[in-house]
UniProtKB/TrEMBL annotation:
This is MBL fold metallo-hydrolase. InterPro entries: LACTB2_WH (IPR041516), Metallo-B-lactamas (IPR001279), RibonucZ/Hydroxyglut_hydro (IPR036866), Sec-metab_biosynth-thioest (IPR050662), WH-like_DNA-bd_sf (IPR036388). PANTHER family: ENDORIBONUCLEASE LACTB2 (PTHR23131). Residues 30-196 form the Metallo-beta-lactamase domain. Signal peptide: none annotated.
């Protein structure tokens, strides 16, 4: 299914979404921005600071009061619109903590993000006529939050509807990512709304599949390292032989995240750029 950016799409009573115009091999069709509420609103993951996107979003709000702009994490396809929308809509920004990775800042991070309120794991807020719970799910980034509302969970990039999530060290952590998936498995929400892709009507099944895929990839990398010492680039090539070249840096980063987790367990080690058992 193909969607048009800038068009408000109802998802049910008190819930709609709008697609930002930022398609890519990493975002799918783009970032979905969710609007919670009817007479009053909460905005979830405002997206990139694209002028056309900002204008379309203000038009979709239609003059209704906005109680809060909620942010799951600070990648540049999620949070940069928060500040300009906060100014135009007279709304506060609540959500994840700001994040800086000293000495090795991933290019995809929004370093200008400055929330009015940082939400802790399990903290609830009243916005858009609803009670919304923040759920800390580190892994994709260390500051990632999901937001729960009744039977719905807005899963940001932690669980996406079109692809698996990239985990990029040093901030991205594979062990934390898998633990956060298990945390969500223990919750009761039955419908996930990701920031990329379609709503997930059977999230438990999807999360089992993601965990299984990650464990399979871990076993594959451990087997490849066991065959002979190898560089990260060589391991990535052998693990992802038919990968779109545009996605190779992301695949290499995720492979590294797996190797770091294996190293922490004492299963592999890296000496002068060569991974070995």
């Amino acid at each position: 299914m193909t969607h048009t950016p800038g068009i408000l799409q109802p998802l049910g009573p008190g819930l709609a979404r709008l697609l930002a115009p930022n398609p890519s091999p990493f975002t799918g069709e783009g970032t979905w921005v969710h609007l919670i509420g009817t007479e009053r609103l909460a905005i979830l993951d405002p997206g990139p600071a694209d002028p056309a996107h900002l204008d379309a979003f203000v038009a979709a709000v239609g003059g209704r009061p906005v109680d809060a702009i909620l942010v799951t994490h600070t990648h540049r396809d999620h949070s940069p619109a928060a500040a300009p929308l906060a100014e135009r809509l007279a709304a506060p920004v609540w959500g994840c903590a700001p994040l800086v990775v000293p000495g090795n800042q991933e290019a995809g991070f929004d370093t200008s993000y400055a929330p009015d309120r940082i939400l802790a794991d399990g903290e609830t807020v009243e916005a858009g006529g609803a009670t919304i719970e923040a759920v800390h799910t580190p892994g994709h980034t260390s500051n990632h939050l999901c937001f729960a509302l009744g039977h719905r969970l807005f899963s940001g990039d932690h669980v996406m509807g079109w692809s698996t999530t990239v985990v990029i060290p040093p901030d991205g952590n594979m062990g934390a990512y898998m633990a956060s998936l298990q945390k969500l498995q223990a919750r009761s929400e039955t419908l996930f709304h990701p920031a990329h892709g379609e709503p997930v009507a059977d999230p438990q099944r999807l999360m089992r599949g993601i965990l299984g895929h990650r464990l399979q990839r871990e076993r594959q990398l451990l087997r490849l390292v066991g065959e002979a010492p190898a560089t990260l680039a060589d391991l990535t090539q052998r693990a992802y032989p038919a990968l779109d070249p545009r996605l190779r840096p992301a695949a290499e980063a995720t492979a590294l995240a797996h190797l770091i987790t294996l190293e922490e367990r004492g299963a592999v080690t890296c000496v002068q750029g060569l991974w070995k058992v």
